[in-house]
TrEMBL record:
InterPro entries: RNA_pol_sigma-70-like, RNA_pol_sigma-70_dom, RNA_pol_sigma70_r2, RNA_pol_sigma70_r4_t2, RNA_pol_sigma_r2, RNA_pol_sigma_r3/r4-like, WH-like_DNA-bd_sf. NCBIfam families: sigma70-ECF. Keywords: Sigma factor, Transcription, Transcription regulation. Residues 15-81 form the RNA polymerase sigma-70 region domain. Residues 113-164 form the RNA polymerase sigma factor 70 region 4 type domain. This is RNA polymerase sigma factor.
Length: 174
């Protein structure tokens, strides 16, 4: 048993000599923190060394880079949580990055007007419009589905757009 532990320890030492600098660079790229990359690389080597059945690993160098990536990712998560904790709760006086209430109301009204414009289209024209703009079908596919020519599909789409534009230009009744 001590022979296999000694063999695994030698393998880790060889990995350390051969891959330490590359592992540190990989961690530094992942974390953006070259100062702690050395410590994190050592942590990756230690985690690999502590594996109970190290001799059974087919590709220890490959596993080393996976472990190093996980160590770097864990470090980034901890650092992010720490920054949030230090920043404290969000300030209610700060403006929200999302749209304001007036923008949301205006967008909802515009969408309602657009839905009304689409609903007011003749049935076949509305079907063509929805198949093209919602389902993303081609003129040919729409024509096959509705039993009309691609040229007729084009006509219905042009008509739908003209009627929707005209309706959207009108001011909503309040």
């Amino acid at each position: 048993m001590t022979g296999s532990v000694g063999t695994w320890a030698r393998k880790i030492a060889e990995l350390f000599d051969a891959h330490r600098l590359r592992v540190e660079r990989a961690i530094a790229r992942r974390t953006g923190d070259p100062q702690t990359a050395g410590d994190l690389a050592q942590d990756a080597f230690l985690r690999l060394a502590r594996l109970p059945d190290g001799e059974a690993i087919q590709n220890p160098a490959g596993l080393l880079y996976v472990v190093a990536d996980r160590v770097a990712l864990d470090h980034c998560r901890v650092a992010k949580r720490q920054r949030r904790r230090e920043a404290g709760p969000p300030d209610e006086a700060l403006p929200s990055s999302g749209p304001g209430a007036d923008m949301v109301v205006e967008r909802n009204q515009t969408m309602a007007r657009l839905r009304g414009a689409i609903d007011s289209l003749p049935p076949k024209t509305r079907d063509v419009f929805l198949l093209y703009h919602v389902e993303g079908l081609s003129y040919r596919a729409i024509g096959e589905r509705l039993g009309i020519s691609p040229r007729t599909v084009e006509y219905h789409l042009r008509t739908a757009l003209e009627q929707c534009r005209a309706r959207m230009k009108r001011r909503p009744l309040r």
